[in-house]
């Protein structure tokens, strides 16, 4: 019989460091819980349980020999299917990469393993991280642990489903337009998109390189911060990374000047979501925060801007899948051009093909000025909106998604209806700023409602500090679906 | 609160001053869809074309709204974090070092077809 697992990854790590729990016990119980969550959600695509147990036993031997526990000693974690790991497949949810074996771990994975965290598996996601429901996966859809008839959000849906249901583990996701925060909101998890350049993209299957960031999905902001502090910092393999001292992430004090963006609380936001955010703001005000309203006037155009910028970059990044060097090849091609065109048509799903075509169009000579360059000017306006807001306040508090998790199949036929999920999250990616989603209560139907905190460029520590403070004030983040409590 | 809360994506709301801009046609015909697919090296089936024409029309109408927020006097956004100090030193990496050489076999193992030494493709030159 196994003991109940500690609620958070850091509590587990502390129990291991004090010798109250072995790493092997930690991993064995995590395997049982991950499998239990997978039976309901289908989140796991690859399991590395034998390797994880071998690693755990080696860690126990080192600790028994008197070595000090490392910062993340014995904490089980998973990686999203688009993050490179030597173990298992780096599939990106695509037929194109269904059997792809990465020759190296991503830098983020390398750093976590060096700090003692133990890779236990990989998770399903939307194909090439393009989607908001994890229904666009060629390898397996994922269900929401709070209601299996609903989506977990996306594209890091597998990671969020596990973070919403399993104690004492952390899951890596990636966020290009909200793909960590929106699923975290739908599954009752805490998920952070760091400032662009905080975590190396080396080993992340590229979708839109100026927007992509790896980040943690966890049970609370402390666990997310512990993982982010280890993953972050300059990497010679990614020239866009920035120097970050772990103390900046772990020890920033919670700021007191909070802005509420009017443009994020309009009529498109469902009443229950709005009420949860307003209640959170009141809790922070009662705790001594100064709250003011701010304007982000370019918000109505953020989604259109995102569609142009992200598809343009995707069309370029996905040009490498040619049926020659990696991935799938069409059979009996009638020459090289036919090999390219058919391999790509067979390897990519419908949503990925649509985005490649749109991206190719907005970058074509005739359309580039009217679409791509115009979108880059609007992107500057969006970044300027945030810079002006952060001249007056320290952080912004808003909803993560206009509505909670929707039903499977509800938004599959209309891409624009699916893109509506992203209106409150794409702004942070376009501006490169940090943002976190954390549980902010539940709807009458019992579904988690996400609260988003956004900070200025480099303000990751401040975002996490306010998230921690909010979680000290409320207990929303501790709630688990009944089947997993 | 000084004004009614705004709605993201609300077509009634024009929060940014409109600037006179040249509007582009918000639709593409079947022939243009074929041309883009060719540029993208992506085979499309004849049955897909009407759906793609419709999809392009909707998407272009959607992204055409950017004209309302455009300010042609603004420099386009660009990534500001990349600078010379973040560039790596220009020297070969050692095996086992991050970014060091990856054995050719590891790459060939992921190729759909190879002859043991090379990636293979259909004959290109007679």
How would you portray this structure in words?
The complex is a heterodimer of chains A (485) and B (126). Helix content of chain A is 40%, strand content 13%. Chain A has 16 helices and eleven strands. Chain A has helices at 9-17, 23-41, 49-64, 107-114, 157-165, 181-187, 221-231, 246-250, 271-286, 302-317, 336-347, 350-363, 368-392, 415-419, 426-431, 460-473; strands spanning 44-47, 76-80, 118-123, 170-175, 190-193, 213-218, 257-261, 290-294, 395-399, 435-442, 448-454. In chain A, strands 1-3-2-4-6-5-10-11-9-7-8 form an eleven-stranded mixed sheet. The longest helix of chain A has 25 residues, at 368-392. By secondary structure, chain B is an all-alpha fold. Chain B contains four helices and no strands. Chain B has helices at residues 30-39, 49-64, 66-69, 104-110. Chain B is flat and about 55 Å long. The termini of chain B are far apart. At the A-B interface, helix 10, helix 11, helix 12 and helix 13 of A face helix 1, helix 2, helix 3 and helix 4 of B.
What is the strand and helix layout of this fold?
The complex is a heterodimer of chains A (485) and B (126).
Chain A: H1 9-17, H2 23-41, E1 44-47, H3 49-64, E2 76-80, H4 107-114, E3 118-123, H5 157-165, E4 170-175, H6 181-187, E5 190-193, E6 213-218, H7 221-231, H8 246-250, E7 257-261, H9 271-286, E8 290-294, H10 302-317, H11 336-347, H12 350-363, H13 368-392, E9 395-399, H14 415-419, H15 426-431, E10 435-442, E11 448-454, H16 460-473
Parallel strand pairs in A: 2-3, 2-4, 7-8, 7-9
Antiparallel strand pairs in A: 1-3, 4-6, 5-6, 5-10, 9-11, 10-11
Chain B: H1 30-39, H2 49-64, H3 66-69, H4 104-110
State the CATH superfamily name of the largest domain in chain A.
Amidase signature (AS) domain
The value of Rg of chain B in angstroms is 25 Å
Q: How many helices of chain A does DSSP assign?
A: 16
**Helix-strand sequence of chain A:** HHEHEHEHEHEEHHEHEHHHHEHHEEH
CATH-level-2 architecture of the largest domain in chain A? Alpha-Beta Complex
Radius of gyration of chain A: 21 Å
* Broad shape of chain A: globular
């Amino acid at each position: 019989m196994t003991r109940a697992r500690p609620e958070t990854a850091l509590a587990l790590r502390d129990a291991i460091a004090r010798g109250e729990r072995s790493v092997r016990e930690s991993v064995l119980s995590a395997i049982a819980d991950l499998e239990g969550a997978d039976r309901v959600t289908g989140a796991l695509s690859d399991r590395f349980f034998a390797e994880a147990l071998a690693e755990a036993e080696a860690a126990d031997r080192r600790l028994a020999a008197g070595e000090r526990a490392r910062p993340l000693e014995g904490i089980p974690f998973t990686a999203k299917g688009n993050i490179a790991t030597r173990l298992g497949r780096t599939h990106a949810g695509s037929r194109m990469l269904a059997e792809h074996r990465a020759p190296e771990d991503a830098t983020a994975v390398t750093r976590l393993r060096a700090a003692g965290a133990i890779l236990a598996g990989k998770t399903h996601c939307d194909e090439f991280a393009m989607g908001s429901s994890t229904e666009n996966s060629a390898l397996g859809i994922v269900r929401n642990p709070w209601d299996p008839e609903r989506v977990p959000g996306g594209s890091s849906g597998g990671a969020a489903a596990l973070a919403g249901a399993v104690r004492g583990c952390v899951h890596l996701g990636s966020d290009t337009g909200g793909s960590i925060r929106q699923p975290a909101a739908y599954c009752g998890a805490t998920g952070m998109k760091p400032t662009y350049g905080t975590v190396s993209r080396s080993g992340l299957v590229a979708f839109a390189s100026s927007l992509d960031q790896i980040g943690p999905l966890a049970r609370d902001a402390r666990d997310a911060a512990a993982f982010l502090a280890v993953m972050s910092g300059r990497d010679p393999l990614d020239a866009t990374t920035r120097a970050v001292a772990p103390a900046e992430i772990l020890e920033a004090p919670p700021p007191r000047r909070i802005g509420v963006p009017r443009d994020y609380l309009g009529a498109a936001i469902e009443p229950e979501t709005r009420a949860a955010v307003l209640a959170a703001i009141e809790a922070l005000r009662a705790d001594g925060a100064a709250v003011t309203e701010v304007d982000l006037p370019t918000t109505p155009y953020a989604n259109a801007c995102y569609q142009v910028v992200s598809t343009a970059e995707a069309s370029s990044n996905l040009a490498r899948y040619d049926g020659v060097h990696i991935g799938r090849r069409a059979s009996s091609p009638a020459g090289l051009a036919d090999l390219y065109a058919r391999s790509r048509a067979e390897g990519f799903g419908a949503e990925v093909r649509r985005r490649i075509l749109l991206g190719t169009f907005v970058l074509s000579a005739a359309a580039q000025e009217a679409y791509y360059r115009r979108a880059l000017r609007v992107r500057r306006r969006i970044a300027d909106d945030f810079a002006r807001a952060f001249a007056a306040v320290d952080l912004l508090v808003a909803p993560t998604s206009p509505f909670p998790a929707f039903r499977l199949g509800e938004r599959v036929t209309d891409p624009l209806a699916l893109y509506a999920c992203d209106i409150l999250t794409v702004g942070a990616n376009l501006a490169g700023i940090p943002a976190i989603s954390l549980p902010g209560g539940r709807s009458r139907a019992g579904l988690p409602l996400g609260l988003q905190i956004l900070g200025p460029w480099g303000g990751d520590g401040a975002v996490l500090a306010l998230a921690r403070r909010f979680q000290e004030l409320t207990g929303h983040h501790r709630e688990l679906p009944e089947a997993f409590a | 609160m000084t004004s009614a809360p705004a709605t993201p994506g609300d077509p009634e709301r024009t929060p940014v001053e409109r600037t006179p801009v040249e509007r582009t046609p918000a639709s593409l015909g079947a022939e243009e869809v074929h041309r883009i697919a060719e540029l993208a090296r992506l085979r499309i089936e004849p049955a897909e074309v009407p759906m793609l024409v419709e999809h392009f029309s909707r998407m272009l109408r959607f992204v055409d709204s950017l004209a309302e927020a455009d300010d042609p006097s603004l420099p386009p956004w660009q990534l500001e974090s990349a600078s010379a100090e973040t560039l790596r030193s220009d020297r070969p990496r050692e095996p086992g070092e991050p970014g060091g050489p990856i054995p050719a076999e590891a790459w060939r193992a992921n190729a759909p077809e190879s002859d043991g030494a090379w990636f293979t493709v259909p004959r290109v030159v007679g």
